[in-house]
Automatic annotation (TrEMBL):
<dbReference type="GO" id="GO:0055085">
    <property type="term" value="P:transmembrane transport"/>
</dbReference>
<feature type="transmembrane region" description="Helical">
    <location>
        <begin position="115"/>
        <end position="136"/>
    </location>
</feature>
<dbReference type="InterPro" id="IPR000515">
    <property type="entry name" value="MetI-like"/>
</dbReference>
<keyword id="KW-0813">Transport</keyword>
<comment type="similarity">
    <text>Belongs to the binding-protein-dependent transport system permease family.</text>
</comment>
<dbReference type="Pfam" id="PF00528">
    <property type="entry name" value="BPD_transp_1"/>
</dbReference>
<feature type="transmembrane region" description="Helical">
    <location>
        <begin position="274"/>
        <end position="296"/>
    </location>
</feature>
<keyword id="KW-1133">Transmembrane helix</keyword>
<keyword id="KW-0472">Membrane</keyword>
<feature type="transmembrane region" description="Helical">
    <location>
        <begin position="209"/>
        <end position="228"/>
    </location>
</feature>
<keyword id="KW-1003">Cell membrane</keyword>
<dbReference type="InterPro" id="IPR051393">
    <property type="entry name" value="ABC_transporter_permease"/>
</dbReference>
<feature type="transmembrane region" description="Helical">
    <location>
        <begin position="18"/>
        <end position="37"/>
    </location>
</feature>
<feature type="domain" description="ABC transmembrane type-1">
    <location>
        <begin position="74"/>
        <end position="292"/>
    </location>
</feature>
<keyword id="KW-0812">Transmembrane</keyword>
<feature type="transmembrane region" description="Helical">
    <location>
        <begin position="163"/>
        <end position="188"/>
    </location>
</feature>
<dbReference type="InterPro" id="IPR035906">
    <property type="entry name" value="MetI-like_sf"/>
</dbReference>
Length: 303
C-alpha cells in the first residue's frame, strides 16, 4: 500500500518572525554598541595616523602593524606578557588544586580553612594591590622585615627588574586564588559520592584517590579555569599600574599596559599604534583560547 507523505510543519507566520526579532533586538543592539562599534573603531584607528590630539589624520594601511613587528620593544612586551601568563596561570591553577584536595581531607577546622582560602575573592584588584605595595615596600615592608630577621639585606621587590615581574605575578596569584578555589570546590562537590566511596572500597586513598578519581573528574573545571585564567592574565592591568607602572625598565610592561601607555599615559595620544596593539592583543587572546579548546577540551572529553 502506498505510504502517506510525512506531515510537514506549518509555515511560520510573519508575526512570529517579527516577535522573534523583537526579543533579539535588545541583545543585538547591546552587542553592536559595546562590541561591534568599539572593535570597528579600533580597526579604523589602527589603519590611520593621528595628529597631536589623537584625531585620525590620514590612512596608512598596515604600517602600524609592520612597525610593531620590527620593534624590539614590542617583542620584549610580548615576551613579558607570555612570561606573566605562565607565572600566574600555572601556579594559580595548580596551587588552587592542591588546596582544594587538601581541604577534602578529614581534618578539623576545614570549614574555617575553606573560608580563609576563598577570602581573596572578596578583595578588588585595587585594594589588594595597595596591600601588596605595603608588603613590598623596600624600607618598611613586611617581606624585607622578615629578611632582616635572617640578617639578609633588603630586596627591591618592585624596583629591581629581576624581581618585579615575579612580585606582580605573586600578587596576581593571590588575587585569583579565592575564585579558583571556589570553582574547584564546586567541581569536587559535583562528584557523586558513590564514585568516591567505590574507589575507597577498592583501596584507593590519599594521593592515589586524588590522581585516579578526583583530578580526572575535575577535568571540566580545570579546563574552565585554565581558559579563564589565561584570558584574565592577558588582560591584567590594575595591579601592574598600581605596583610598578610597567617598570622598572619595562620589565613588567605587558601588552595591555603598553596599549595604555601609547594611548593615554604621560600625555600620549598615539591612538593608531595603541589600536594596532589592541588588535594584536585580541588575536593573541583568540589564538590562546582556540589552542586551549583544541588541545585541552579534547583531553577532557576523552579522559
Amino acid at each position: 500500500m502506498p505510504t502517506a507523505p510525512p506531515a510537514q510543519a506549518p509555515p511560520r507566520r510573519l508575526g512570529e518572525h517579527g516577535l522573534a526579532w523583537a526579543f533579539l533586538l535588545p541583545s543585538v543592539a547591546v552587542f553592536a554598541l559595546f562590541i561591534g562599534y568599539p572593535l570597528g573603531r579600533t580597526l579604523y584607528l589602527s589603519a590611520h595616523a593621528n595628529d597631536l590630539f589623537g584625531a585620525p589624520s590620514r590612512y596608512v594601511g598596515l604600517r602600524h602593524y609592520t612597525d610593531l613587528l620590527a620593534s624590539a620593544e614590542f617583542r620584549d612586551t610580548l615576551l613579558t606578557t607570555a612570561l606573566f601568563v605562565l607565572l600566574t596561570v600555572v601556579p594559580g591553577v595548580l596551587g588552587a588544586l592542591f588546596l582544594v584536595l587538601l581541604l577534602e581531607s578529614r581534618i578539623r577546622g576545614v570549614r574555617l580553612l575553606r573560608s580563609a582560602f576563598a577570602l581573596p575573592f572578596a578583595f578588588s584588584v585595587a585594594s589588594a594591590s595597595v596591600v601588596f605595595s605595603v608588603f613590598y615596600n623596600p624600607a618598611s615592608g613586611v617581606l624585607n622585615g622578615l629578611l632582616s630577621q635572617f640578617h639578609l639585606g633588603p630586596v627591591g621587590w618592585l624596583t629591581d627588574s629581576r624581581y618585579a615581574l615575579l612580585s606582580v605575578a605573586a600578587s596576581t596569584i593571590w588575587m585569583n586564588l579565592g575564585y579558583n578555589v571556589l570553582v574547584l570546590s564546586a567541581g569536587i562537590g559535583s562528584i557523586p559520592d558513590e564514585i568516591t566511596e567505590a574507589a575507597r572500597l577498592d583501596g584507593a586513598s590519599g594521593l592515589r584517590l586524588a590522581r585516579s578519581v578526583t583530578v580526572p573528574l575535575l577535568g571540566p573545571s580545570l579546563f574552565f579555569l585554565v581558559v579563564v585564567s589565561t584570558v584574565n592574565a592577558l588582560q591584567s592591568f590594575g595591579q601592574i599600574h598600581i605596583l610598578t607602572r610597567g617598570g622598572p625598565d619595562g620589565s613588567t610592561r605587558t601588552l595591555v599596559y603598553s596599549v595604555y601607555q601609547k594611548a593615554f599615559a604621560y600625555g600620549s595620544s598615539d591612538f593608531g599604534t595603541a589600536s594596532a596593539q589592541a588588535v594584536v592583543l585580541l588575536v593573541v587572546v583568540l589564538a590562546c583560547t582556540a589552542v586551549q579548546f583544541g588541545a585541552l577540551e579534547r583531553k577532557v572529553h576523552y579522559a
